[in-house]
Amino acid sequence: MELTVLLQQTLDLSQDAILISDREGIICYWNAGAERIIGYTADEAIGQSLDLFIPEKLRGRHWEGYHRVMASGETKYKTGLLSSPGIRKDGSQVSLEFSMVLLKDENGTMQGCASIMRDVTERWLKEKELKQRLAECEVKLAAG
Length: 144
Prior knowledge:
Blueprint: H1 3-13, E1 17-22, E2 27-30, H2 32-38, H3 42-45, H4 59-72, E3 82-87, E4 93-104, E5 110-119, H5 121-143
Antiparallel strand pairs: 1-2, 1-5, 3-4, 4-5
């Protein structure tokens, strides 16, 4: 099988959301995983700003960093995962972990960025519950 066919299958069939945005933050690629996690079809998402799923209160900080990365070609997030909330098409919140890939042309000029995102909402809710229970136990111990 040809490598490009295998790569296309990987992108299209991944359970993780894989998206590509250009220098201005306009979505150029949106896979089935992104459709499943965020709720917008590729037809609805492609051509839209990343604001499509970025919570309004986080947009200023997001765009400041995005434009800085596009201008410099550098990010402090080359390795590791970032965590951020997102907003689904239905308005509900989703907790996301994601990695970024900076995309450059043959001359090294920034062209945009790819993100690979995973829905970690269930884990985040469990951790939140455990933290609340721990805090309750600490209060009981301190009172006891």
